Amino acid sequence: MSIAWYLAVSAIVFSLGAIGVITRRNPLVVLLCLELMLNGANLALIAFARMWGNGDGQILAIIVMTVAACEVCIGLGMIVAIYRRHLPIDVDEMRELQG
Amino acid sequence: MSSVLFFLGAIGVITGAVGVVVLRNPFYSVLALVGHLISLAVLFLLLRAEFVAAVQVVVYAGAVMVLYVFVVAYVGDEGESIGERLRGPGPVGSGLRLGGAIVAGALAIELLIALLGTGLEAINGYGAGYSPGPRTYGTPAYIGQLLLTRFLIEFEIASFLLLIAAVGGVVLARRRGGLGEEDEREALTPLDLLRPLGTGTIAEGVGRRPDGVLRAQDSPLETGSRYPAP
C-alpha cells in the first residue's frame, strides 16, 4: 500500500481522538482519547520514516510512547487522588485545581 | 497480501478508535483501545517497524493498559453513573457533543487535505528500498544503535522524564492522612526521617503500627479511603 493510505488512517484516528477529548467528560476516557491522538501521530511518524527509509521517525515514535507512558502515570495518579477526595469524576465539574 | 493485511489492520484501528470514543462503560473503552493498539501494531509491521510494533504490543497493550484496567476497576462505578447522566436529555450536552463532532470533523478534513493533497510525490510511493537482514531498517539492532549514538540526548531526556513521572505518580496517589498526623507519633525511628509518613510499608499504609495495633486516628474510614482495610 502506498504511504498515503497510512496517512489517511492516521488522520482519521487523530480526529477520532479529538472528538473524544472534546465530547467525553469522564477523565479516564479523555486520557484514552489522548492516547488515540498520540497513536495517530505515531502512525504518521512511522509512515514517514518508511517513506524516507531511515529510522529517525521510529525513534521519535518510541519517544512519543515514553511520553505517553509518563502522561498515563500522572493522569491516572491524579484520577486516583480525585477519587480519594470524594470529588466528582467529571472534567466539567473540576473548576478549581487547588491543592 | 499486504493490502489485505493493511485493510484488516486499518479496519481494526478505526473500529477500535470509534469504540473508545463511543462506548459508555470506561472498561469497554479500555478493551477497545487494546484492540486498537494491536491492530496498529499490524500496520507498524507492514511499515517495517518491527521493533516499534513489538514495543507497542508488549509495553502499550500489555503494561499501560493493565494500569488503565486497575484504575477503571478502582473508580469504575462512579464513571458508569456519570456516563448515564451524560446520556440524559439536555440541549446543552447534546449541543456540546454536536459541536465537538463538528470541530473534529473539520480537523479530519483539514488533516486529510494537508496530508493527501500535498504535492509530495513520495507520498504516493511505497517508500524507500528495503533489504531484509541483520542491521537493517527497523530491527532492534538498528533502533538500538540509533538510540545510543545519534539520539543519545533524547534517550537520556526520556529516561529522566520517566523518573520524574514515576516520582510524581507516587506523590499524587499516596495516602493523605492530614498534616497533624506527624506530631502524634510516639516512637520516631531513624527511618522516619528519611521518608515522609505513609510511604513506607503496606502495614503502615493501612494504619497499623509495627506492633500490629491499629491506630485510631489512622483508621482508613476516617482518612478518606473509601474502602476499609481488611
Account of the 3D structure:
The complex is a heterodimer of chains A (99) and B (230). Chain A has 99 residues and is mostly helical. Chain A contains three helices and no strands. The mean pLDDT of chain A is 87. By secondary structure, chain B is mostly helical. Among the domains of chain B are: 88 residues, NADH-ubiquinone/plastoquinone oxidoreductase chain 6, subunit NuoJ (Four Helix Bundle (Hemerythrin (Met), subunit A)), CATH 1.20.120.1200; 28 residues. Chain B has eight helices and no strands. The longest helix of chain B is centred in the first third of the chain and has 38 residues. Chain B is extended and about 75 Å long. Classes of the chains: A mainly alpha (99), B mainly alpha (230).
Could you give the distance between the termini of chain A?
Answer: 51 Å
Could you tell me the CATH topology label of the domain at 1-88 in chain B. Four Helix Bundle (Hemerythrin (Met), subunit A)
Number of extended strands of chain B: 0
CATH architecture of the domain at 1-88 in chain B: Up-down Bundle
- Radius of gyration of chain B (CA) equals 25 Å
* Average pLDDT taken over every residue of chain A: 87
Mean pLDDT of chain B: 75
- The proportion of residues forming helix of chain B, as a percent range, comes to 55-70%
| CATH superfamily descriptor of the domain at 1-88 in chain B | NADH-ubiquinone/plastoquinone oxidoreductase chain 6, subunit NuoJ
The CATH C-level class name of the domain at 1-88 in chain B: Mainly Alpha
User: Structural class, from secondary structure content of chain B?
Assistant: mainly alpha
Could you tell me which chain pair has the largest interface and how many residues each side has? A-B, 74 and 90 residues
- State the shape of chain B: extended
Structure annotation, total helices of chain B: 8
CATH class of chain A: Mainly Alpha
Strand content of chain B: under 5%
